[in-house]
Amino acid sequence: MKLSLRPRAQPEVNLTSLIDVVLLLLIFFMVSTSFVKQSQIAIRLPEADSAAVVEEPADQIDIMITETGTYLINGRELINNRPETIRNALRKVSAGNSELPLTISADANAKHQHVVTAMDVAGRLGFTQISIATVNDPVE
Hints:
By secondary structure, this protein is of the alpha/beta class. The chain has a domain at 61-132: Nucleotidyltransferase, domain 5 (2-Layer Sandwich), CATH 3.30.420.270. 30% of the residues lie in helices and 13% in strands. Strands 3-2-1-4-5 form a five-stranded mixed β-sheet, covered by helices on one side.
């Protein structure tokens, strides 16, 4: 008895269905992706210039914020850092005149929230001339 060996068949991989699935996934992700442009706020940060010396007007309100979040208005410390206390102190110092220039200076390690709270209270009282103080770095 003579057995004959059949030639081995080469295995075939049918890629048609795989390509179809990949293309469908690609179309799905392209359609479901939203291309929304995030809204952006343009902020112009203050810069300190050592050449420009600004004369401070005689009537001005200074708000200083310490590292611990204590507020000082014209050098006088407030009893707490609640917005109502800041509002009452600003009303008393300004005597209702919201046209006075207001300067906010904060310690480098103070929380940003304390500065925003001071700006918010001043803005709600009608102050429009609000500036943020900067400190020049010592030149070596």
